[in-house]
Amino acid sequence: MRTKAKLALVLLVLASVGVPGAEEAAKPGPAAASQTKTEDVVVKAELSKSIWGKENKVYLKGHVSLTHGDTVLTCDEVVYDKDAQVAVSPGKVVITDPECDITGDKGTAYFKKRIGVVEGNVTMLVKPKKTEEESSSKEGSSESIRAKLSKPTTVTCQKVEYNYRGKIASATGGVLMKQEKRSASAKKLIYDEKNELLTLLGDVNGVDEDGQTFSAPDKVTICVKKGAEWMEAPNATATFKVQTEEETPE
Questions:
Q1: What are the contacts of 182-189 at 24+ separation with CB within 8 A?
Q2: What are phi and psi of 153, to 5 degrees?
Q3: N vs C: which end of the chain shows fewer Cβ within 10 Å?
């Protein structure tokens, strides 16, 4: 799950629009200078306008696109407040790259807090690249949690937030995940990228391709660290299928 590259993209591209003041917002401190590098972000818009003085804002309007490598953000408008160090796309935002597509009603980047947000009817299509081990994994009971999570998944919710300092992403507002014939829902999803922990909170429910169900009222925690996968769910309820044989009368 390359959450960092996807959920923080609004921060990445809006922070790098190449306008006066934007580069200062994301400038690293002296200790981090030797570990950073400069990359180009290509910005296109029908109109670009900078206002100095009391308002101190930058506007991009009309078919705005920001391209960073193979990742593209498109929207109709971007407003960057240089004093508050906040960039907003008040209309529909579309983010696409080879591993994830995201759409939402608006996007916001809070540079001081190192937080990026996409909200309003958010849809994410996660298309992770598989390792050789995951590609060779077969369907069935031996399939690992990590292998299952490596498959294309659609996530819908009302808000996605990414703290790129702590590398923690969260989705809230009727979170629904669909993957092939599996689905799961919860009130909130949190992914801790550093520790590779996925947590589902509040009224967690799931059903797999065989119709087996799982539910937990409070929390489900899943570790997807390679070689150390586990799942924990207090007060959980599950149903599973068993094969039985009936005797045939002679």
A1: 182/148, 182/206, 182/207, 182/208, 182/209, 183/207, 186/220, 189/155, 189/157
A2: -135, 135
A3: C
| 125-164 tens-digit pLDDT | 888 666 555 555 554 444 556 666 667 889 999 999 988 7
pTM for the predicted model, two decimal places: 0.77
Domains and CATH numbers, the chain: 1-117 (no CATH), 128-241 (2.60.450)
Cα–Cα dist 161/205, whole Å: 22
Could you give the CA distance from residue 141 to residue 153 in angstroms, rounded to a whole number? 20
Cα 207 → chain centroid: 22
Give per-residue pLDDT as tens, 97-127: 888 888 999 999 888 888 889 999 999 888 8
pLDDT of residue 5 exceeding 60, the answer is no
Position 128: which residue type?
A: P
Structure tokens at 59: 């506007």
